[in-house]
Every structure is written in structure tokens, then in C-alpha cells.
Batch of 4 targets.
Target 1
Amino acid sequence: MIGIILAILCLVLFPVWPYELKYAVWLISLYLLIFIVGLLLLRLAIYAIASLFGVSLWLFPNLLADSSFFASFKPIVECSRW
């Protein structure tokens, strides 16, 4: 309960954070966005190349599914023939 209250206070008081801390949060969110978009583009490229050979190959097939964090990365690869 104390952690939830502290998290809410930190979010509400974001405008008074020091500039360095705001910049660090911005950089972390930027790098995570680049990582997610890069992973999605990699998945698309692998699927497009594999579909030329009649194979449905997905890297992290449950990545965009509505599931828990760890379940999104299982199985790592899913492959089937058309």
C-alpha cells in the first residue's frame, strides 16, 4: 500500500522532478519504443521471407496477444506449412 501511494505521489509531482531525472525517464521510454518497434519489424521481415517458401514462421507468436508478460514470449518460434 505504501508503494502504491509513493508511486502516485511520484507521478503527480513529475513537474517538480530535476531535469536530469526527467531526461533519464525520457531516454528509457525512447529506447524501449525503439526496441519494441525493431522487434516488430524483425518479426515482419522473418514472416515475409518465410512466406515466400510457403511456411508460416513467427518469432514470439504471442507478443501482441492479451496475456501476461512472460506468456508473451512463449513459445519463441512457431512454424507451420501452408
Target 2
Amino acid sequence: MKFLVEVLLAGITGAALMTASMHFIHKSGWANADMTRALGSMLTKRYEGSFLPGLAIHLSAGILFAIPYLLVIRASGFTPLAAMLAVGAALGALHGASMSFILMATVAEKHPVERFRSAGPDVGAAHVVGHVAYGLGVGLIAWIGARGM
């Protein structure tokens, strides 16, 4: 039961940090990183009304991906906060780099909403940053959980 609670908290925390960081990147104009609406509009096939479905997809994925992240962080054997954050950030960087490749190689050109069909290096970098934020959130919850949540 404790692991399930940790998974839920880690997934929600990580997804919230990732969503916030990508929202900031998008609103700052650094990249077209409106990931929540990009996910949602893949389901709805339009931009309007895509935020809530995108948020539901992202939170669900955040909870699902928290499982392997937590297992790897625990298996690392590290217990200091900085080490657990570093492992989470490293996992996020790897995850973000692979998602950036998948996004640019397959998803973008077939996206049903035109504004999301172009994904250059700036969008890829935004995904890496977002996934690092996710990993930091999961690492934080792993550290709290290791202390007897």
C-alpha cells in the first residue's frame, strides 16, 4: 500500500512539475511546448477543448512512469536527497531525450492540429527540461518515502 501511495504522489508531483515547467517555456515563447494541449488534441483532433483530456493523459502517464522511476531510484541504493534527485533528473534527461526523438521523428508530422506539426530542437529541448523536472519531482517523493512517508 505504501508503494502505491508513493507512486501516486510521485507521479502527480512529477507531472505537475513537468507541466508547470513546459507551460513556463511555452508562455515565455522559448518553444512551442504546450504539451498538455498537444496531448489532448491528439485525442480530440482539435485545439479547443484539449486541455482537460491532455491533463488527464499526462497525469495518468505521470503515475504510470513513476513506477519504473521509483524502482530505479530505490535500486540505486542512494539515500541522500541530492543523490536521489540526481538519479531522478538523470532518468528524466534520458526519458526526455527519447521522447524528443519520438516526437520529432513520428508524432509531430502526423499530429491532427497544425500548430503541433512542427517540432524542432527547441521543442525537443523543452521536453528534456520538462522530463528532468518530472524526475526531480519523483526523486523528491522517493526521498520522502524512504524516510517513512
Target 3
Amino acid sequence: MPLCIVVDDHVDTREGFAEYLRHSGFDVRTAGDASELRALLAEVTPAAVLMDVQMPLVDGWTLTREIKENERTRQTRVLVISASVGEGFRRAADMAGADALLAKPCDPQRIVVELTRLLDCPVPAL
């Protein structure tokens, strides 16, 4: 399965999603903030990033724009997850270049389904 980076400043959320994705067959790396994500992106080109929006210092919208503006990572699919997904958030997701948006809290299986849709790969049987 493809490489996915889970970005969330809350360690329990980040590790919970990462573990579920690993169990689903994804190769997973994690980042707790912008500097960790940027360091990972200097080493690897993931197929997808599961991006929290509300993080300290640098928000997920800024990081999504950076991914989409970089020649090496612009094909990386970005699935944004947020507790606030009103109409303004949908517009912000589009403007940042996000490929999909899910509301928190979300069922990890829904994340797997959405990632496999974005990456056009088979949904794993769990």
C-alpha cells in the first residue's frame, strides 16, 4: 500500500489514525507539526497526507498549499480533517488545494475509504 503521512498536533489522534492505517496496509509516517512534516517531505514523497487543520504556529491550510505548490509533492493527495467543516472550511480547503475534507471526530474506516478513493487503490478487507 502507498505511503501516507498523518499530521496532527494531538499525539493520541495522530497515533490512533496511524495505527489504523498501518493495520489497513498503508505504509505510515507521522508528524506533530510543520517542522516535522517538512523534514519528512525532504526525505520522502508520500502518496497522501492526512492533514489536521488546527495546529499551533503553522496551520494545515498553509502546509497543504506548500505541498501543492512544490513540484515534487504536488501530486500528493491531501485529505484534510477538521472539527470545523462549515462552508467557510470547504472554501478554504479548495483554496489550499486539498483533495478531500472529513469532519472530526471521524471513523478511521471512513479515512481508509477516502484515502483509497483518492489514491485509486483497493479498499483493504478488515
Target 4
Amino acid sequence: MSHESLPSRPESAGSRITSAEAKGHNERLKEKIETNVEKAGNKPTAEQEARHEVYEKAISVAEYNSSSGEDVTVAEPVAKTKQGNKLSFNTTMHHARKNMKPVERSFSKVIHQPIVEKTSEVIGKTVARPSGLIGAGIASFIGLLFIFGIAKYAGFQLSGSEMPLLLLIGLVSGLLIEWTVKSIRSVISSRG
């Protein structure tokens, strides 16, 4: 798909394009891309690609004029559909990753995979609640001190399963305490 290219970045500060020229260029790009989409048979994917390309060019124009002091506002042409949201997210991630180091970029690609994000959200809403983790930490710390003290005093040896059991007990008790407190608060707030 051929398209009109932006003027190259000027070397001197005095030869920047104006806001009106940038808007005009953006409009010409939109018209050209829309005609190319119509020629292609109005395929939804071609239209989304065209909108993505227009959005990319609009950002380039805004960056081009960012140091000139003129305020250039560019509307986001991406449709509010599932595919449009995905395209918008990918564009945002692309621009964010351009400024990252290679290691950070790789890590970002891994943690922003859909399955990793969904798993993290589910775990964050269920098992890895702060109250559960705090409860697990407190129960294991106090419980191990108590059990170790008794074992040392009585002279028997620990089996090694004490820590995981105390962590599990603390996690469950922390989640139950949080659930109880939230239930009591909701009952009190519904009466008031």
C-alpha cells in the first residue's frame, strides 16, 4: 500500500512545519488510505490496518511539532471495537517499548502476553490477596518460633513440613479474616 511520506525532520529549528500543514498532511493521508481501503474491497482487516497507519502517522506529526511550542491535537481514529482496542493496545505498547532497553523490552513482551495477564489478574483477585500473604507470613513466623522452641526444649527433631503447613494455615486464616471484615462492613453500611 503506497502512501505519502512525511517531510524529513529538519536540521535547523526554524524550518519546522506549521500546525495547519501538519493537519493538512494528516487529512491527505486519511483520504488516500480510505480510497485504498475502498479499492481493496472494504475488508475489515484492511480498514483496521489503514486506521492503524493513519494513527501512526498522526503520532509522528505530533512528535515532529512537539518542540515548536504549537499545540497540535490529533484525534485517535481507532474504532472502539475488540479489534480496535487490541490494535490501540499494540500501538501503545510499541511506542512504550521503543524507549526501553532490550532486556526490559523482552520482559514487557512476556508479561503482556494475554495468558500471563489473565493469570496474574485471577491470582491477584483470589489467592495472592495482601491479607492472605500477611496472614501466611505472620503465622509462619510466630508458628515456627513456637514449634522450634518446643522442639528444642523437648528434644525432638522437626520433619520439615511445618513451614508449608503454617504458610497454608496463615493464608487461609488471612483470607477468612478479610472476608469476615468485609462482610461485617457491608452489613453495617447497608443498615445505615
